[in-house]
Protein: Pol-like protein
Organism: Plakobranchus ocellatus
Amino acid sequence: MVNDRLVHVLESRDLLSKSELNLVTSTFEHIKNAKINLNTIDNLHVLCPSPWEEHKVNVDISLTKQNKEEVAYQKDFFRIKETFSNHYAVFTDDSKLEEKVVAAAYFPEHPDRSKATRLRDGASVFSAELEAIALALTEIKKLTKY
């Protein structure tokens, strides 16, 4: 079988560690047991460069909740704001009260672009966080005409 030959070649040329070789072998064994015909699977063409390599994203998460004085928070905030002065400032937030959940994105330099939305009752705060980020990204895309 082709897979057995491939494993043998990989093993004989010492191309993989023992654990990697075990993973390859067990994967082929699962494919065989599932009766998957590898010849019927289309090849996947990967985009080059990948999106995360093509567009550099700068994120600063140094302004986290730590035991800092308010003045230290303000100092860090203004340092970050100055570092990213040629970027759009956006603040996201969410709120959950009983079963009611909302998400918002606020643009201080473009208040007219600020958005808020209500999620379905009982939605999680994690869903609201993601919705707020999605609102922000949608508006940034419109502002940059990207």
Notes: The helical segments are 2-12, 18-33, 51-54, 70-83, 125-144.
